[in-house]
Amino acid sequence: MTETAKKISEQAALLGINKGDTLLVHSSLRSLGGASAADVIDGLRDVLGEEGTLVFPTLSYHHCNPNKPNFDYYETKSNVGYLPEYFRTEVKGVIRSMSPTHSCAAIGKNAEFVTSGHILDKTPCGPNSPFRRIMELNGKILFLGCGMNCNTSMHAVEELSEPSYLYGGDFEYTFTDASGKEYKAPCRAHGFKGVAQCYYRLADLLSGDELRIGNILAAECHLVQTKAMWEKADKKYREEPYYFIDWTE
Known about the structure:
It is a single chain. This protein is α/β, with parallel strands linked by helices. It has one domain (about 5-245). Helix content is about 30%, strand content about 25%. It has 7 helices and 12 strands. The protein has helices at about 5-15, 35-50, 80-90, 110-115, 130-135, 155-160, 225-240; strands spanning about 20-25, 55, 70, 95, 105-110, 140-145, 165-175, 180-190, 195, 210-215, 220-225, 245. The strands form 3 sheets. The protein has a 7-stranded mixed β-sheet, sandwiched between helices. It has a 3-stranded mixed β-sheet with strand order 3-7-8, with no helix packed on it. A two-stranded antiparallel ribbon has the order 9-12. Helix 1 packs across helix 2 and helix 2 packs across helix 3. The protein starts with a helix and ends with a strand. The relative contact order is 0.17.
């Protein structure tokens, strides 16, 4: 490892990331102030250790959607930043879940469990999605210099109570899996028409170690405990269905 990767590992440990954790990372590479993608991946894998699991969202809704309904395990690019795409394409041993719009990529002890069930879901973030399975593993979410609004796991929590703004239509997609096998399957789209997502409001519901804030290099980071997030956010959705959104029209 480089010295930068070692520093990332040390600071991630101070933030609360432990050996053996299952960690989902939302990220802004630029926010770190000069680290390479390899440094970030090496540092995070080091702090997680051999028993840990590293996961990045590889969402592809710009490249695969009802107007372009073809998802290819290898060829469909992620559209949520440089680090997820680097992780997906350049890190040996990474595996990807099968979802037209909301896939994740993972490596480590629980990678197969995290990614394997996604194709069974008929919604983007359903009960077999990586977002649900990370919670079942008592995992953590790291927001690496990107703030807490890009919290895709909140869609999985929304799918529990289905607020009125959540869903769009149902569409059929063509999938090409890692072996080259092609098949068709339906998936319901998320809607969010006339809505601004305000998932940063989650911070006001968490307390103590449920949310830890600190720096990794130059990036301000937020580390969230997934079980606390699911419990408190779901309770809030049922009390106030529109707490986490603003209406824009």
